[in-house]
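Appendix B. One record, verbatim.
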Amino acid sequence: MSTMSSPVEFLELLAREAAAVEFEGPLVAARAAGLPADRLAELEQAKTVALRVRALLERRRRRETELSGLYDTVSDLAGLRDLDDVLRAIVHRARNLLGADVAYMTLNDDERGDTYMRVTDGSVSARFQRLRLPMGAGLGGLVAQSGAPYVTANYGEDERFHHTGEIDAGVGEEGLVAILGVPLRLGSTSIGVLYSANRSARPFAREEVALLVSLAAHAAVAIDTARLLAETRSALAELSAANTTIRAHSSSVERAAAAHDRMTALVLRGGGVEDVAAAVTEVLDGALLALDAEGRLLARVGEIEEPDRADIVEAVAASRTEGRSVRRGPLWYAAVVAGAENLGALVLRPDDELVDADQRILERAALVTALLLLFRRTVAEAEGRVRGELLDDLIARPLRDTDALRSRARRLGVDLDAPHVLVAVGDDAIAATGSARQRVLSWATTYASARGGLAAARDGRVVLMLPGRDAGSSARAVARDLSRVTGRPVTAGASGPSAGPATLAGTFHEADRCLTALGALGRSGQGASTAELGFVGLLLGTVGDRGEKDVAQFLTATVGPVLDYDARRGTALVKTLEAYFGVGGSLARAAEQLHVHVNTVTQRLERVGQLLGADWQKPERALEVQLALRLHRLRAPAG
């Protein structure tokens, strides 16, 4: 019995590497045998010492295993060259060495200022595998920021670090509870974090922390080695490509010289924008658009779609700011400028990538295009002056030498004996500055010339002589198109058609009176002809600057109460008056036209009498009322 209950038995248990629970056996047997208390205390002390020895041996065995694994890891890493292989090997070895459920690694993103999940081993959650951790958030963010290891036995309940909903959701979906994170450091710089984690709550021993720190140190060196190797390979590839680049550059310089000579010759022989576009595409291969400052097409070579207006504006602005061509997707843009003035753009879709010398070719083409456009503008302005002088002579009084005028017009492609309408544009289109006035005149000259007509500035107006017979349509078209150019409502009065050069002066003055009448009627920003305004237009065309105010006062004094009554109550007194006068004062015919009963017409007219006075149907009052109704109708926008 004494043999079975002696301290020697603990040595035997240590020798056969018994489980810790078996060390209770000798004590249980001793108590059962009734040994005295001093013997039991001796055995208890022997058991305690034996368990400490067993724990020490266990730690040393585990340390030997860890060191062996660490040695194997270093050997494995030394043989790896691809960075992804290195990272996967590190994480897999970390999981095996610590016997963890999951191991993973985050690396710092210097551009975004956070860390992101790079590699996982044992993970099952896609959400967890896509996590990004702000610096200082979560256990890993804290490790990355501080550069020191952190361990938690229960992540969800640990308040030592900042929790975020996204990180907690990812950790919860993965089911992680205990997490150990150690920094990956290169010198004083932290490049990421290596983790070991379990799905149950348990502390990590100091030996495990030290092991993961050692592995992280080797891993950081291996990562840096793989990075340096990748950079070396990249440098060799760049050196290999340098020779190819030099050869390509030499070829591009030759192309640039040829393009320069070709475009110089093109300018000297009087070529146009279309010739520049063709030369660029032949040298650079591809398709090209030449656009003016308004985005209108000047030339197209090859198959290329026009970009959106907003894209053109943005790209041209960038090209002007940078002083060179810019790329937007597959297209290259080069602003066509003269000083601070934007003249348009060249848009190139090359078949191959452009090198710097090729960009210079495109930019030189934009410069040549600007020069050609300035030449074209100078010629156009000279022609515009000639056309303007001719129109000014045609509408002047008295008219001299009509045969000479016809001859001058024929040289400009204008037949003075064909029907023409004259359109006068109001002062609302011409700002106070001379540049704005010149812009309107330039637009009018181009607009009229494109239609075989003439344009000039006269007496503070801009006048257009346009082929055709429909004066009203021409006035509305000019008002609409010029409003778009100026960005403000434009009023245009028109008259015609004319019947030969002798009638043009009178037609102009009628158009001018029509313009004045539109202002008097409160129809600024519209276009109309004298025929559309009738006798009222001719009458109001002579009232001058006070016209609109006088018309408003006349309407208020004559039919103002009726207009106010209709506006307040939604009645139809004005419509009834117009119908009544329109059928010569017949109640029955007015009722038929209005689709109401005669009594209704009678009641409405009685109400008019109450509003205007009993004498409203007397001849002189009736004439004033009818004139006021006509003015009121003309003041409304044209339908």
